Amino acid sequence: MRLVLLLISAAFAAAAPKPMFDGKTLKGWHQCNGKATYRVENREIVGRTAEGSPNSFLCSDREYGDFILEYETKTEPALNSGVQIRSHQYKSDQEVVTENKGARRVRHPAGRVHGYQVETATAESGSSGGIYDEARRGWVANISSDPTASKAFRDNEWNKYRVEARGDFIQTWVNGVPCAKLVDSMDLTGFIALQVHSFKGDKPAEVRWRNIRIDDLGGHEWKRIFDGSTMKGWKKDGGGEWAVEGGALKGVQPGGTTNRGFLISEDEFGDFTLRMQYKISKGNSGVFFRMGAPSAKEMGFEVEVDPTRDPGGLQAPGTRGWLQHTGEPDKNPEWRPLDWNELTISAQGRRIVVHVNGKKMTESLDDPGRLTGRFALQSNPRLPLEVWFKDIEVMRPAR
Length: 399
Known about the structure:
- The chain is mainly beta.
- The protein has one helix and 32 strands.
- Strands 1, 3, 4, 6, 13, 14, 15 and 17 form an eight-stranded antiparallel beta sheet that branches.
- The model is unreliable at 1-14 (pLDDT under 50).
């Protein structure tokens, strides 16, 4: 019995969060970007603004995938701040579309820190605990309209944060209040960083962090389910023709028939996150998931693949039809109708989220449809079709 208790105690001890900051030095951290200063004072990390400096970051030497991160922070209300997670630096100059007060193209220099940022702002803003995609897409989980979460942060006090990142699901709490719930798989690993925002004021402003601890939960990675050279693991059903061309699956249909066809995965999937690249030059196609038999009335779900409309639109063919339209392409300034696009589908239980080129296009939090089934690439017979799919991967726990 004593041995069992010792083993249980050892298991809990191994899972306990570990300090990321020793309370005395900045060992394990290094500065990226900007000229703000970071010092240790009273077992706290203190970030202080520098006149004319862009955003500055104190970055962890280590990268993390899945984790539970806890920390406390206190910020002068005049200063905006935050904590980066799963972040990186651009390897070369990069132009991105940022949707913050309207979509606009912004160019960032090589070395610029980018990635998810857990926001620290003011009580009045109501945005603390939201998630901002720094130097990339802008807000991806703005909680300022949430009547409870937006009131969790307190000015001029220590605020306790908790951040959980597991696969493509990131969740935040501020002072015990649930805030952001983000489904996004753009980054599965990266460093953690403490931000001192650029600042204009009569005197410098400061932000403090303490009790920074992390529980490393391992991580997830992408595993291919199409090898790029054969159709192993897939089978053809119905009309249309499929071939491997240039590392991609190419589907063609002559059009003007009623013989719809599919290329169907041999494996079934329940909960999953799937991503792929697709390109369609003409006709209409789709990516089916949780699909039963092609002849069954309830076919599962379809994500629209069309060169003219509804990128990432969601349907339940055979039963409920269209569930969510996404409309004209101007809703996604990154969508490339006749070029390669990245499609990501996350289906966890009854929650379904679809992204195209990193932009969330559809989301259903409690869909009553099928919970398991196969993936399928559609060959729609109505119009002449030419479509390609490549880099087809599912997210798996890393080993």
